[in-house]
# Entry
Amino acid sequence: FQKGFEVVTDESDRFQPTRETQRLLQNSSNRVDTANDEWSIPNWHAATGQNVLTWVYHGVADDPKGHGHDWPVVKARGLVEASPRELLDFLWDSSQIRKYSKISQGRDDVLILQEGVDTTAEESMCGFAGQAKIVRALVKLKLLPPTIEMLSLWYSKPLENGAYMITSRSVWEDDSGVHVMSSSNLRSEMLLGVHLLRPVVGEACCCELTTITHVFSPGLPEMMVTRCAPNSATGTIRDLQALFLAK
# Structure
């Protein structure tokens, strides 16, 4: 969880903006964090309006040549017309995923470890704050025959000043860490997934969503994944924006 927070709040130059994001940043004077005056992050590139900002880098958090370093880490950021808690509950609900992810073939909760994002460590029978579960997700990319399967541990808890965060990372049925083919499904690995939801000053029903996606998919063309990953992250935030605007 801590590593996810460090990566999702990393505004360093290792994250390279896409061409459209570079244009938006050059045409905007907004270079400071306006999402939350009480929790200001230096050099933050704040989202505005319905724009979605997207960055990419290759590498891993601690080791530029670590496991999965050849696969893109994608960061995307946009405003959604929902409170942080409302959006968190929506994203946590596996039955909702196909409403905002065009490539999703569904997501199922395999095991609920702890319910209630506001659960404190003192209240927990497991000894940790927040909520956690193991989910199985299926994804189908166009032009690629196999369905991608991921088995991941999801964890979320409140942060300061009304913010929330969800992190996800792959788990395995045993300690081998083998990428298993299940019928026609290709097991891929979520190296790091993050959703950071922060309130926007003066807007009770609006939050800033920043996502991190780092997936290792052996058996898939790396060049295609590198090209498609930023568009997929941007598209997910745009679909969430449209979904909540329509409510």
User: Anything to note?
Assistant: The longest helix spans residues 222-245.
